[in-house]
């Protein structure tokens, strides 16, 4: 990563913001942070760091809510994601950077809009819906670092209340991000950057938990979606600009 301490501090701030959102809402780290991390580090390392940080903040959140995890419901989601993760890694490793940027930005933006409108899809109900959502989420998480929206759409169609969704989303975040890192490896960062990332995750965990008691759920959700949409559109625009510049 070029840019010295300024860029590293910006990266730490991005991780802090994403971790705060995920601790608050159960998902959202990748939606908020992945586009900016991709712009700072490039698609490969940006997605890897998104996977690592999202998994870490999910693990922290899971410590409070693991008793509410519905393991029977999560098995088909996780199994389908495990099958799709290698395909996402394969695609990400073979596409040019500009195509990846445009594709990731488009995926994030489309996913945000679907979640924002609470899309109801018959294909995302029952066991077949869990398998479809898990496969889509695993592929998107491995390729673009954004697996949460597919999980969120499944929860909407399964009528999960927020109290149940958050711990299950965190359990899913731990497992699917661990699978992604197992397939692709850990991000390559310097020791100072790792320290800033760790500080951002820790600070975000504290801030998100404090905000959860103060910000109404509907307002927090709107903020997450707006930030995510802005990030997705920015990343897509950069990719398209680079494509047209060739």
Gyration radius (Cα, Å) is 17 Å
The largest pleated sheet is described as: none
What's the number of helices?
A: 10
Strand count = 0
Percent strand: under 5%
In short:
By secondary structure, the protein is an all-alpha fold.
Task: List the topology elements.
Blueprint lengths: L3 H22 L3 H13 L1 H23 L5 H24 L2 H20 L9 H19 L3 H10 L4 H23 L6 H22 L4 H29 L1
Helix pairs in contact: 1-2, 1-3, 1-9, 2-3, 2-5, 2-10, 3-6, 3-8, 3-9, 4-6, 4-8, 5-7, 5-10, 6-7, 7-8
Give short descriptive properties of this protein.
246 residues, mainly alpha, single chain, 0% strand
Write up this protein.
This protein is mostly helical. It is built from ten helices and no strands. The chain has helices spanning 4-25, 29-41, 43-65, 71-94, 97-116, 126-144, 148-157, 162-184, 191-212, 217-245. It is globular.
């Amino acid at each position: 990563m070029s840019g010295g301490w300024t860029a590293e501090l910006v990266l730490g701030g991005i991780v802090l913001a994403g971790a705060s959102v995920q601790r608050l809402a159960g998902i959202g780290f990748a939606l908020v942070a992945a586009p900016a991390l991709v712009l700072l580090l490039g698609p490969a390392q940006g997605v890897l760091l998104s996977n690592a940080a999202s998994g870490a903040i999910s693990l922290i959140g899971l410590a409070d809510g693991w008793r509410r995890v519905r393991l029977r419901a999560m098995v088909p989601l996780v199994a389908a994601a495990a099958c799709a993760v290698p395909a996402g890694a394969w695609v990400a490793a073979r596409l040019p950077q500009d195509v990846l940027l445009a594709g990731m930005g488009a995926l994030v933006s489309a996913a945000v809009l679907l979640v924002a409108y609470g899309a109801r899809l018959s294909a995302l109900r029952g066991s077949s819906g869990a398998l479809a959502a898990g496969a889509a989420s695993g592929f998107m998480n491995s390729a673009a670092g954004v697996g949460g929206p597919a999980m969120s759409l499944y929860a909407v169609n399964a009528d999960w209340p927020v109290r149940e969704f958050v711990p299950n989303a965190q359990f899913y975040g731990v497992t699917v991000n661990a699978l992604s890192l197992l397939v692709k490896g850990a991000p390559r960062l310097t020791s100072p950057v790792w320290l800033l990332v760790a500080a951002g995750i820790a600070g975000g965990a504290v801030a998100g938990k404090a905000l959860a008691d103060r910000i109404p759920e509907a307002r927090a959700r709107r903020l997450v979606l707006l930030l995510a949409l802005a990030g997705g559109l920015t990343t897509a625009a950069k990719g398209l600009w680079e494509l047209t510049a060739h």
